[in-house]
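Page 47, continued from p. 46.
Same chain as before, 509 aa.
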Amino acid sequence: MTASAHGLTRYDQLVREKCLSPHARSNDVLPQSFGYLLEANPVTGTFTDQELVNAFDAYVDTLTTTKAANGKADAGMTFFGQFIDHDITLDATSAIGRRIDPRHIRNVRTPNLDLDCVYGDGPEVSGYQYSKKHEHYLLFGREDNPYDLPRTFEGSALIGDFRNDENIVVSQIQGAFICLHNILMSHVEGGGSTHKDVMACAQMNIRNDVWNGILPEKLVDFESVRRFIRLHYQWIILHDFLPSFVDQRCIDAALDGDPFGADAVVMPAEFSVAAYRFGHATAQTAYKLKKADKKPLDLFKMQGFGPRDEAANLEMRMFFDVAGTRAQKARPVGMKMAETLMKLPDSVVGAPIEFDGVKLTLEQSKKLALRNILRDRLTLQLPHGQMVARYLHHRGYGKSDHGLVHPPLAAPSELAKHHIDKTPLWVYCLQEAEKVGDGKLTGVGGLIVASVLIRLMKLDPASLLNTPEFEPWSGFGGDKCSMGNIMQYAEDHRDDIPHRKDLYTGPVR
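Result:
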């Protein structure tokens, strides 16, 4: 077998090269770099960079709102979207204000939807995440808080992606997936019906002799549980997350073909820097963590990157609908953002930033919407919204054909007032959602987001889309499997893990 590629355990490499059934697609490891769906779109005309900053700054002030608004998606889906992003992208090198070609940016994450943010590179490589006393169990909890992430004695989280500790909601989604692994490991080791269900699911689309001969016996249980969870995670993305925020017709179109062509770049900047940042518009100003809470907690009082007190443990039913409960809701996707995100705290932005020589004030630097637009236009120079709309019309996705992409929308009036008639792509995606998408991404934004996530599954020969016989487990609700059901399952069974206290790490306060 060839040497393992970055981000793949020896088992993953074995599956990809030797073990997939003959009808599965065979591909190389997905490339770990960014790129363009279309092409770079440099700023032209007589505008100076300072004039552009001033115009965009005036525009983002029109996006700011203090009014609460509830869309159709569960509140937790905003943070699950963040979790998915952290599973497939990490730009650890490029500076926010320096022009750069995205093809020169290395994506530190494996772009597969493989939960490497939970598993790291597996117990062989990322041993610091795993128990030495109980092989193949992930570390989890502290004496002071049994439901906190595993931590070093300095308080840093021992997880596959440090960003999944940046707020207490995404932190506890991360924790729920860790618990889910440990719960299922204990069931598999104990035998019984769950053991049979996990093994049957994991073996789908992979030759039987992999599990009974090629794979070392001591890894069979671990790899079975991991694949079982991966397939359900991808099911949730396709059947729960995407429909929460994206017009179903865009999802169907991406499943039927590829709006940007079969050879489209795997991780486009148009997705990571623009369309997928729709989640910023869905964040609420504050959330209740528990049903009994009298007051919601402000968003930026929910920050992480350190040991979490038990009082900050949330109830998943407050963020994801479970049978008989009603979760809080995310804001609809649209052209308004919570004021909180326009006044980022000092802990997030403590000093002014520069964009290619133009120095922003500290007040401007704290406006997340302005940072998004300037990263789009001045740093990565993405194609504008009207350009992508015309491209998709040319490919046959116009209103008269599929009904997905409307004729290019005019720039918002506040931009037009400053003589900007080409809408930054991030803004255009939000504009479509509000004007013609009923609070969901549609057209340009919907096709970008749906096609990228679905393409990742199509290109992965071990994914859900290449495992046609897969059906969600009855323990997660069968065909009614949902993010809420999976999170509730983890919450209900996390105390049943044998030797769970052996999985605790420091620090103790």
